[in-house]
Amino acid sequence: MILTRALSNTTKSVNSFKLFICLAIAALAFNATARGATINYGDFNLPGIMFQQVTESSGTDPVPMYGPPSPFVVGLDFDPMNFSSTSTGGLADITDGQLNFTIMSLPGGPPIPAVSLFEAGDYSLAGGGGNASTSVFAGAIIRATVTQINGLPVAPISLPPVNASFSDGLPPNEIATPWSLGLTTNIAGALGPGRNATKVEIVIDNSLVTTSQANTLAYIAKKDFRIDIPVPEPTTLLFSAIASIGMFAFRRSRG
Questions:
Q1: pLDDT in tens, 38-96
Q2: What's phi and psi for 189, nearest 5 deg?
Q3: Cα distance between residue 195 and residue 179, in whole Å
Q4: So where are the chain's domains?
Q5: CA distances (Å), 225 to each of 73, 143, 152, in order?
Q6: Closest CA to 56 of 32, 40, 77
Q7: pTM confidence score
Q8: Alpha-carbon distance 255 to 77, whole Å?
Q9: 46, 85, 222, 238: which has the fewest C-beta neighbours closer than 10 Å?
Q10: In this structure, are residues 213 and 92 in contact, taking their beta carbons and an 8 Å threshold?
């Protein structure tokens, strides 16, 4: 179920905790190739677009975590399973999951202008006398590498990674409170006019982190995850084609 209520990022976490989180996420992303457990969900056809070799992995927890995706008109929808982090009594916990796949334009299909993700879930913070060191954190990074432009293979073009995060900490106590975040990598903007990406390799790294103190608890779970390709739907492409033909005929009649 998609959670629609979004919460703004807070600044309750102390700077040292934020630094720890950033270093932890960076280390996990850097070591992504060393991850062992994987599940390959295969290929998924959308109108004009194909997702190839959708694979999830984790270096911290058993898979599946994202679970098998369900395709829809412009992307894939996941219902994450067991994608959570819990800590209590002064301990910390990191749960990290990765998705790898290739997006390719099918013959006659649209180019790939961007890739977006949206994720959501809930979190809880509890414990009297606790401070911002009892915290929850969710982070996401998208890395995109273009391998085909205008239908022709090119030397891999690695675009700058994009990231987003959510965090909160004590006080006050929070029980089953919704959180969400989203981000987009602008492929068309990075390549420039006339250079349409038709094959892109994507790596998405997702992390949930909790820290706690004595007599406190922190919990955060990911319950919805969605990937979107903002391409025109078939009806939009049809109307655009009809409009172009009509404009061409109008100009000819005036000539």
A1: 999 999 999 999 999 999 999 999 999 999 999 999 999 999 989 999 999 999 999 99
A2: -65, -35
A3: 37
A4: 15-254
A5: 16, 17, 31
A6: 40
A7: 0.80
A8: 50
A9: 238
A10: no
